[in-house]
Amino acid sequence: MSIAFFGELMLRLSPPGRELLLQTPKFEVNVGGAEANVATGLACLGHKVRMISAVSDNPLGGAVIGELRRRGVDTSTIVSEPGRLGLYFLTPGAGLRASEVVYDRAYSVFARRPADAWDWDALLDGATRLHLSGITPALGHNTASAAIAAAEAAAAKGIPVSFDGNYRAKLWESWDSDPKAVLTRLIGHADLLFGNHRDISLLLGRQFSGDGADRRREAAEAAFAAFPKLQTIANTARHVDDADSHCVSARVDTRAGGYQTDEVLIAGIVDRIGAGDAFAAGVLHGLIESGGDAKAAARAGLALTALKHSLPGDASLFTREDLAAFDEGGLDVRR
Amino acid sequence: MSIAFFGELMLRLSPPGRELLLQTPKFEVNVGGAEANVATGLACLGHKVRMISAVSDNPLGGAVIGELRRRGVDTSTIVSEPGRLGLYFLTPGAGLRASEVVYDRAYSVFARRPADAWDWDALLDGATRLHLSGITPALGHNTASAAIAAAEAAAAKGIPVSFDGNYRAKLWESWDSDPKAVLTRLIGHADLLFGNHRDISLLLGRQFSGDGADRRREAAEAAFAAFPKLQTIANTARHVDDADSHCVSARVDTRAGGYQTDEVLIAGIVDRIGAGDAFAAGVLHGLIESGGDAKAAARAGLALTALKHSLPGDASLFTREDLAAFDEGGLDVRR
Amino acid sequence: MSIAFFGELMLRLSPPGRELLLQTPKFEVNVGGAEANVATGLACLGHKVRMISAVSDNPLGGAVIGELRRRGVDTSTIVSEPGRLGLYFLTPGAGLRASEVVYDRAYSVFARRPADAWDWDALLDGATRLHLSGITPALGHNTASAAIAAAEAAAAKGIPVSFDGNYRAKLWESWDSDPKAVLTRLIGHADLLFGNHRDISLLLGRQFSGDGADRRREAAEAAFAAFPKLQTIANTARHVDDADSHCVSARVDTRAGGYQTDEVLIAGIVDRIGAGDAFAAGVLHGLIESGGDAKAAARAGLALTALKHSLPGDASLFTREDLAAFDEGGLDVRR
Amino acid sequence: MSIAFFGELMLRLSPPGRELLLQTPKFEVNVGGAEANVATGLACLGHKVRMISAVSDNPLGGAVIGELRRRGVDTSTIVSEPGRLGLYFLTPGAGLRASEVVYDRAYSVFARRPADAWDWDALLDGATRLHLSGITPALGHNTASAAIAAAEAAAAKGIPVSFDGNYRAKLWESWDSDPKAVLTRLIGHADLLFGNHRDISLLLGRQFSGDGADRRREAAEAAFAAFPKLQTIANTARHVDDADSHCVSARVDTRAGGYQTDEVLIAGIVDRIGAGDAFAAGVLHGLIESGGDAKAAARAGLALTALKHSLPGDASLFTREDLAAFDEGGLDVRR
Amino acid sequence: MSIAFFGELMLRLSPPGRELLLQTPKFEVNVGGAEANVATGLACLGHKVRMISAVSDNPLGGAVIGELRRRGVDTSTIVSEPGRLGLYFLTPGAGLRASEVVYDRAYSVFARRPADAWDWDALLDGATRLHLSGITPALGHNTASAAIAAAEAAAAKGIPVSFDGNYRAKLWESWDSDPKAVLTRLIGHADLLFGNHRDISLLLGRQFSGDGADRRREAAEAAFAAFPKLQTIANTARHVDDADSHCVSARVDTRAGGYQTDEVLIAGIVDRIGAGDAFAAGVLHGLIESGGDAKAAARAGLALTALKHSLPGDASLFTREDLAAFDEGGLDVRR
Amino acid sequence: MSIAFFGELMLRLSPPGRELLLQTPKFEVNVGGAEANVATGLACLGHKVRMISAVSDNPLGGAVIGELRRRGVDTSTIVSEPGRLGLYFLTPGAGLRASEVVYDRAYSVFARRPADAWDWDALLDGATRLHLSGITPALGHNTASAAIAAAEAAAAKGIPVSFDGNYRAKLWESWDSDPKAVLTRLIGHADLLFGNHRDISLLLGRQFSGDGADRRREAAEAAFAAFPKLQTIANTARHVDDADSHCVSARVDTRAGGYQTDEVLIAGIVDRIGAGDAFAAGVLHGLIESGGDAKAAARAGLALTALKHSLPGDASLFTREDLAAFDEGGLDVRR
Lengths: 335, 335, 335, 335, 335, 335
Description:
Order of helices and strands of chain A: EEEHEHEEEHHEHHEHHEHHEEEEHHH
Distance between the termini of chain A: 37 Å
Largest interface: A-B, 24 and 28 residues
Oligomer: homohexamer
CATH class of the domain at 2-235 in chain A: Alpha Beta
CATH topology of the domain at 2-235 in chain A: UDP-N-acetylmuramoyl-L-alanine:D-glutamate ligase
CATH architecture of the domain at 2-235 in chain A: 3-Layer(aba) Sandwich
Largest sheet of chain A: 10 strands, mixed
GO molecular function (chains A, B, C, D, E, F): 2-dehydro-3-deoxygluconokinase activity
Radius of gyration of chain A: 19 Å
Keywords (chains A, B, C, D, E, F): Kinase, Transferase
Strand content of chain A: 25-35%
Helix content of chain A: 25-40%
Shape of chain A: globular
Protein name (chains A, B, C, D, E, F): 2-dehydro-3-deoxygluconokinase
CATH superfamily of the domain at 2-235 in chain A: Ribokinase
EC number (chains A, B, C, D, E, F): 2.7.1.45
Number of strands of chain A: 14
Organism (chains A, B, C, D, E, F): Sphingomonas leidyi
């Protein structure tokens, strides 16, 4: 019994400190992938999770599997096959210089795997939830079909599906895609959506005016109306002062109503990558622990995303003790 | 003729950058120990200091002695004996994640050394002052007895004693201790106390209401009343915005009156560990240089603690030139 | 056809992170020199530039030449001769501790080269502009004479000259110099001056009262009056909160009028060295691209100096794409 | 179904490169422990293994568990309890300077755990073999009793026991131990012993004269005579030229006869620690794969120990492909 | 006027020290590519060289161009286009563990560039020689056609062609290739071939028996007979003791006769990658400097390949002074 | 009471690993200087030593003093004055590439200090021996005069003088020196000379034929004849296989006879710099401990120089325990 995550696994290569890419000839390496980040976040909070993916059958793929195993993720549903592993290069920003990502994920084992090579009946056996994100279907025909097949298989088995929008225009534009159709089909199976008013606008073809909490609620209600299975919508609003200092508030809506946190100032950002995935992990944790409470979910999501900004790497590695300490407050040295 | 410091010496092991402990398999190593930090701070300002301690007779102990010698501390009063050296592991915080210390100092050579193994008559020979802190008596029976014996020997020889509260509840609670009794006995010999209204509350069993300067003065007067030998009390008040940004004001009280600095914003904190020890070194320096002036002491204490936050490692390594530059102000590049 | 830069090339040695010099026994190395920084900034923006200098004929000199070549600077006008390469040691500041530079550039190949060893006719062949700074004449008799000879040769050939004040009192005071006379002679040949009201006060022997934009304009007009060839004056005003956080506004004046940008907050400073050189590169770029427009120059100068603060090393390595992204704004991760 | 390993887990801290301990203030960290090294070696060869141990319930213990998990070891039989984690400090040798180990493992959670806290019935459930080494009983009364209880429980369940002598005089001498009695009792339950003629001499109280293969066979036969359950004995003979260059031959004896490999020259040694554990893993692998063949075991043991010398860290991380490549020979670059 | 090199440029990513790939999460980065290595070797010896290639139009491609420029290679004939840059991962061997290369070069900008996109007339303008290797045609149809077109264009212009066999079976086998036909066509245009008796066997479909110098001469004569334009053949013979210690002899044959060096022991190998490319650079240097003398070429080739083994990275960075020092001998410290 | 050493202190800057200088932009830093190396070697063996020198009054000079203090050297006889600190750049060799030193020590505080600024009466107060080397007088007139004054002052006070030839032709040739005259004058005051037959040939103007032990004895006898105060001569003979592997034998001659050790193979050399200084420290240690025994001196010298080759940095940091372990032999891991 574990939560299943389906998505690509990648190595992230980044320069030391705040250097530009290859300013000096070193890379620091992290294991990433939006869905794996959420899986990791939950595993470190003590939840049982499995990763469904495909990696190269060489030392790079082996390293990725080993790293997930280290974090407590069940990797027995990852296949290793000939081909290449997706990479991405991150140049961390600073001050008035934004972080930049250069992808080198085309032609990966994951992206090229035929949709019918995934045996969803076996892969989802014993799963308590399936988590997908909008990155997987954006990679191409194979993965779009695979994501839809996964969602349908979960629906057929009565396994709840959560979906994180993660809309990446560049990926969708790199092939003859129809993002609205694919996403609509996927979200049709979801009980939980991570997405903001812009994501919902894209799906429903309408804008939400007003601002702040009202707009966020209005968009949520429109999504609930459009997607009958949908029960919960979660998102953050982020104001970016500079690369090192953001303000974030979290919101979780159910059909019954919503809860929105105060905005917190997240200064001295160490690594912003994966902050959205940490939010998703926190919300899932909050929902599971509270039995579906919007406030608990929003608060746990905010806590985990806030903490993630302080941590190098793509994934939240925080424990329940860390969440409790965050709730307690007190940011001087703990001895 | 030198100022004597008695306390444990430890290695601090911390991850690179802002990583979690062992997120990658490296440790950066620093030499620490509250009293040694004060000694170092004063040595770098040109004062003659000696360290009284016990370390393991292996390369770790040797490295600690060598490092203190590098900083200009007289190490001829440190013994090397079989056993282990105390360690601690620091995970530096960032943003909304607090720094955390994991101690591995139990069973150390220092903690296990019998109280009667210290020959205070010899160790304090030629000492112009003895500095102790509340950490030493908190370690256990051996060190509590040794600290008291040291203070009594100093008193008997007419050597002034300074005492830094450094109250660490976890250490006191790890054995059948009576902190109030021990601390009262130690402070009874001190002419200089580093401690705030909470420390004094603990000693005297009463609370100080009001806020800010008034409460700090009221607590100081209560302490002067309770401890007849006490002439000076110094402390900082710290407001923590996040792990990287604190506000600090310094205050020094004498029986005649007190001086309190403005609060300074210390942003972009590099290493907060040892900031209190740097404050103590600055105050001692200010008192020595000014012949006991509260304002000079408070200002030097504030300067050294402010500077310490900018420096990796446990101890202030700043010189008189650095103090003078801090007083001058001007924070753009100096050429 | 390229812009010619004349000045010393140096290695910068600095400790890792925010350590003091030799706190641990490592140096990070960068290639610096005020004029080379401007040249680099322009080369990375796609301009053709050449460096006129002299380095040691050993692996250090070779490394400096190689690094400039890597950045796209034409190094065929750099000579390698027996002697030493200038060095400088940078201790980066943090928080309330200022950065400090210790020079070890005396007796360098560049400083000791006789003024008549430079063949300006050949070195300036095909040059579209000559850029000098106030550091070169401050180094001693040889370089002061060489700088004047360069400016005169350029003037004789009808090559425009730009001059960056870069007033360093310690250098001028290290020999029997007459800075006002030398600088006046040099600026007499310049059509473009980088300098603020303090630089102009020094040259003209008068103060400019008032504040902000008015004082900056008044000083510019006085300079235009004193130096008939001068057409453009550019400078920044910088307010330093602490070592990590500055506010900067840029201004460019022509005889027709001036343009001054809003002040921007540059927080989370990674490396402040070379920020002035990046400003000069940005202004030159803006002037070249716009055909001499003050607003375009001020905005490009501000952008490049703001970005430089986020980058380790002495020189701006930013491209036109980076400038465009800065103008667009948006400081969250770019994918 | 997995092979069970019982032993202490430790962190190894070592200086970078070939420095002395704390010559510069960095440690490289590895996860070690003789039995865990064997477990790792087998896991990387595709065998199912579990580790039975106790670690501190802090980030250090967590890191050790995570690292074993990364390597594919089942860690569900490791308990996390209050206390300290054993450490050791390695100064790697070079040339004519030998490597040195300084232990800091006293008072560890593992060493202090009461013998009756281990529930062998549960811990050995489904185990196909139990592997012990002579280090565990050498740590003190608790672990000696626990090791004996483990061996007896395994014997009672019909689970084969293997035992690696790993005689460490200093550990046995640190308490009122009777190594001969304890080891005799443990080996009485073993079907497989890793030990050479010196180990057997210690157990049997007699010397083996002659040299080379004859002495090794004679000692093996004496051990077979003394220990009726013993079926296989494996060992290496090592000649040390200098710290970087050793010659090693492997031998495996069964009651039917023995197989001894040629001596191989292992030059350019990267890390000699754990070479004996890698040998044990290789022999176990060879025995399992071949169904008990002495030659296969000796050759696999030699291969894995030879490869281990080329790898930083305590444990063999080699795969079956690596073993096959070693057997094929050919040491130029493989593309 | 410069020597032209045509081939793929790649980044090499390798772990620190002697670790396995991603044993710790860092990569050291080098710029490689067989032909670029030869170009670099010659540039560092003072020859004018140009690189003809295609890289990705992102910071990775920019870094590769910058690095070649640093080494003195003319990069104006490198195009930057959308797509990916080829990578390879090197695990350096040690002792009895061989180095391993994992390629991730499929789908690169270079490999996918249509053969007719290269304008050989322009690219070879002013070239004094064209150097190709067997890797380029092995990558696929595009590059095979491009290499042939390049050789034919050079032949048509009267530009001598040199060809380095660099036979990589895995690359040829990855598509429907006919290596013998392609290589025969390419070598038909060459006056200088880097290849040994195995390469020639492959081309001519016959074996060469005997051993040592005789076999090498016999194969050379067969090649001279088969390829009328061929004037010089160069190769090394390498005996591999272990990953750190090889013995190498160099041989250069002309139609008039051959010169073979003694075998030298190359121990303590730092980086064996690119040793063949350094040999080619040395031979080309020797031929150019001597006007075609076999002995001079063989000796320079041996010197440069021997030195390359001592240097991290893919390319020889040695100068004429280094070659002279190698010839002089004397391997103690030079001051 | 301590042994006094007079000589220049320098920083050594070297690239990481086996890279060329500035192949990547990092330097590793060590504190060096021939005489300080000998002082360090003796301090680590427990002897009291003082260093007489002059360093820059900036953080670099401070770091040098701190490092010597760390090693246990009395630094109270080092002055800090305005000026520059001598540097040198070391490119460590490997295999068939020799190590190279580039000096940047000209114009240093030490070299420029007037000979009469040294107050030998005070500096030698309480000295039990004065150790000089041939580097100091080779630096220029100032230091040549200072070295002679030091030797004469020592002689006048009855303090024995030891002298290490350390003949560096390049230094002597950089000014109008007369090395034979200066060295003859200095050695005239010495009772102990470190020098081989080539050094003695230079002094006496005659060659020593024969080979091995005979030639070494013949040269020693000639030196004894020429220098009446000389009682002991020590030297090593070194055969260099490649940069990583040398063979060394030590010899110590007295007027009564000589002792020559066997040659030892020193393979896997980590850092050859300072091996001669370690030899001098070992010989001095052996002479002091044995009361002047040639065999004890030669053996201790050989041991310390052999060990030094295994250690990064310029100086021997070995203890008496290390010497004892070397004598015992046994180069496998010590636990």
